[in-house]
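Running log. JK asked me to keep both predictions on one page so they can be read side by side. First protein, sequence followed by its tokens:
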Amino acid sequence: MAQSRIENDLYVSGALTCKSFTPPAGSIDDQAIKAGAKVQASKLQHQHRLAYAQPNVAAVAETKAVYVCYGAAGTIKDFRAGSIVKCTGDATITVDLRKNGTTVLQAPITLDSTNQDRVAEAGTVTTTALAAGDLLEVVVTASAGTGALGTGLFAVLTVEEDAQ
């Protein structure tokens, strides 16, 4: 079949119907999808922001599972940790993020007397890739030394996950 080519803009005041349509890359963006379009979840990427927290008492050592990747793949976007009240003296709290038992951070986040109250410190994530079934855990180590451990320990993990 011969192909027709239109070199100028084209305006259609009625409905446009065709047998097939291949939109150019990047031509369909958020504005092109109407509100309430009911796009299936299997066609979307999902962002999860998960919070880990201990009670507002002195931090304690623990390992806690916080996330399992259910999609085909995912990416760790950010990991931060802090405390409501910082440590005093030489007390330290370290917070690590591990995937299937192995750290994904350049180094665990260290919270000590130099940190600010209620401010989350960013960790440097060196391994960002996730696959279906990967388990992420927060691992806390607490050492009071000659000071007092911070209270109200918290961490926030941000993950983007592809659909299943």
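And the second, directly underneath as requested:
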Amino acid sequence: MTTQATKNLETFDNPMHERDYTIRIDIPEFTCLCPKTGQPDFATLHIEYVPDRYCIELKSLKLYVWAFREEGAFHEAVTNQILDDLVRACGPRFMRLTAKFNVRGGIYTNVVVEHRQPGWESQPAVHLP
């Protein structure tokens, strides 16, 4: 596998595709460029998903995220693009991407986007004593 930035996301077969379970991934070093100023924007990406047939391979995810370092993008656009690319790659039952951008001009931006497979409903939460 290459160590160059790439927009190619790889997957592997979900070892327990018959069960709903959650995968959580935190990426604290996301960067892209502000399309207005060219200045770097920094964010932490939080991915939560319930896989269906495929899971995202983590090294390819790292290389995918690196590919945004030299691209200009508004926070809202890049967050939606990443979700769309992840959903296209692995077809999850559910996926939520939260992008928490660092302060810029005294303003923090958090963008939350979701995908839900048609007909899929989450299991009720279990509350333990």
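Observation for JK regarding the second prediction: The two ends are 46 Å apart (CA to CA).
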